Amino acid sequence: MAGGVTTSLILPGSANAIGGQAFVMKLRPTKERSPTSMLLEPPYSLNGTNVDPSVSPRWRYMKCASRYSISRKARTNMSQTCLRREPMYVVTHTYMAGYGAYQRVLPSARVYAGTRMDTAWAFRSAYNHARQIKVAQDSYCAKATAGDWKTVAGQAFPEDLQWEALVDVLRGRVKVNTHCYEAVDFDDFVRLSNEFKFEVAAFHHAHEAYLVPELLKSAYGRTPAIAMFSAFSRYKREAYRHSEFAPRILADNGIPVIMKSDHPAIQSRFLVNEAGYAHYYGLPENIALASVTSTPARTLGLDHRIGFLKEDVVIWDSHPLSLGTAPAQVIIDGIPQINPSYPAVKPASSQQIPHTPNWDEEAERTLEYDGLPPLEPAASTKGVVIFSNVTSAWIRGTGTSGLVDLLATTEGTTGTVVVHAGKIICSDLQGGTLQPGLISVGSSIGLQEIAMEVSTTDGEVYDPLNVDVPTIAGGIGYMPRTVDGLQFASRDALLAYRHGVTVAISAPIHSSFLGGLSAAFSLGSPHKLQKGAIVQDVTAVHVATLRHLLSHPTGEAAKYFRLVTNGTLPLVVEANSADIIATVIQLKEEVEVETGVPLKVIISGGAESHLLAKELGEASVGVILKPPRPYPLQWDFRRYLPGPPASADSTIATLLRHNVTVALGPQGVSNEDAMYTWAVRNLRFDAAWVSCPLRLALASFNVEKLFGLQTYESGYGDLVAVKYGDLLSFEGKVAAVISFRRGSVDVF
């Protein structure tokens, strides 16, 4: 509600071909306090409602899933509406530990699997059975209506509780929502809809839908809507061809577009931000606004109740498609819901629609390359590069922000900046602006291409608490290093680079207490042997359990923990609970008393860190806030600070007020980070959400400060040239990356 969401279609999961029925709920508390009392328009027989033959039937909703990964999910006790009853294999199943897959023997479980062919057959078998029941019902009713009671005497009305929802699908009373990814899946389900003559309300996730618009239009009845994400992608092979330009391409082809959440992967509170991203990449303003209001309402068959200015109203503190927009008040059924409300104060400029860049060429290339356009820089040079029409230029300097204007700028003027070998050598005006490159920390970028495809990842490190680490790998003193497993030129890395993130710090993929040694590297380098590709081979030790490791390290670990205890190497502790963070602060003090040396300690996560902001500041413990806008994703997050309008303060503001050095990590939490490398590209937008003059430092210089990282040479760090606007806005478009460290300029 605090994100302006008033109504949700709550769908079952996607493990089964036919997952079950769904319901539309108003997200406001009721006096009855029951889920049923929150239903928007319950089907007849629920909530005491009865059939009224004079009006259209109240809609029911069904969730289906048609895709390859059904075959990878364990299912037991499955009904024949899903896949076949007999197991295809019973020995192993791919488990996702922190979304890094590995095989485990299941001695007692009966695991069911299937292929696309199995799923298509299961659909056809189920719908054919439902059709037989429907035909029998129609025959029975025709005879009864004609008064032929002799023929039906002694016969029960043909019905079956297991199949009655599918029968209603065939009668046009149920809106089918289908989880689909690839073109082959759309093709299968479109043929199914035509064979059994039922409409598809919406395809969900739908990563390749933009590649097959004419196929979508050939579905039975009305063209299905596409409910999709702006950037959430590449977490599995089926999502690999996702494009940020998909919403505008679909809209250009007359396909209804809905921007959706996939809570908690895409948090529902920030649903309107998905529309903002889509608008940034070319979706027209009116269609972007409709994608989270009137279009989903029409798709649900509820536009007579919701989706327009009626009883549900959201008053925004800025334009709904602007970065960082939040409700000032949310009114559901005419009742204000946020009491008290703490709206943020926004500048007058935020009330206008952002002037987004032109992405026509990029969208055309996306289609030309079937969703996988080349992402490497179009040109890279070590010679002279001239940037004209520069309105401002910032380089590394002194002061609280870590930035200094290259020369004092005269308002309204533009200038020219000359660069040679990655170094600014001339500026013909007092002014001009380029911006420092951003630094990502806290994701698994550089260690994988597709999180849920084992062959494309570096894999998870050993968990010493659960397995005996082989001697050849280090035994009890095991200490894995990111630098040994780095993969360069992944699509997530190159997309982040094209959005101004020039350096990343990644720790080994792990779901145990030991994360190992992180490394800092260039996201624009083609391989690790290129000059400047490795910024620092060891940046910190990452752990979740401390006391014994600090006091009694052994093997390879001892070498690096000595560097921690003598204050040379930072220690990154993954923690979100205030109770655990308090223990870390105490342990830091104990070790410092014993050694007499200040430790460099960083909290990664920090959902409840605001509760200890004063203590963190006094102990000089930094925080990598991850996700950048805390949310109660797990129990250890429950005392999070939601920020305006639900609270007067935010976590970042509270920490900064107590002199805590804060950096922003990407979306994702602790052992789930491997799934969120796609989100690194959004670091610029995450920083822009922060209402603080130092917000650029949160994604750049503060990272350097926390890790003691030197991403620059001779005082020059990476700079990002931005066209049309600012890097921290929905108006700027990265044109080039200037790197003196690498001695080059990459032009996009």
Strand content: 15-25%
Q: CATH superfamily of the largest domain, please? A: Metal-dependent hydrolases
User: What distance separates the N and C termini?
Assistant: 40 Å
Structural class: alpha/beta
Rg is 28 Å
Shape: globular
Oligomer: single chain
Sketch the major β-sheet: 8 strands, mixed
Number of helices: 19
Helix content: 10-25%
List strands and helices in order, with pairings.
Elements: E1 7-10, E2 18-26, E3 60-66, E4 92-97, E5 100-105, H1 116-145, H2 149-152, H3 164-170, E6 174-180, H4 183-196, E7 200-205, H5 213-217, E8 225-228, H6 246-252, E9 257-259, H7 271-280, H8 285-290, H9 294-300, E10 313-316, E11 327-332, E12 335-336, H10 360-368, E13 379-381, E14 384-390, E15 394-396, E16 403-405, E17 415-420, E18 423-427, E19 435-436, E20 438-443, H11 491-497, E21 501-506, E22 514-522, E23 534-543, H12 547-551, H13 555-565, E24 571-575, H14 578-595, E25 601-605, H15 613-618, E26 622-625, H16 651-657, E27 662-664, H17 683-688, H18 695-698, H19 701-707, E28 719-723, E29 733-739, E30 744-747
Parallel strand pairs: 3-6, 6-7, 7-8, 8-9, 20-21, 23-24, 24-25, 25-26, 26-27
Antiparallel strand pairs: 1-2, 2-3, 4-5, 10-11, 11-12, 13-30, 14-17, 15-16, 17-18, 19-28, 21-22, 22-23, 28-29, 29-30
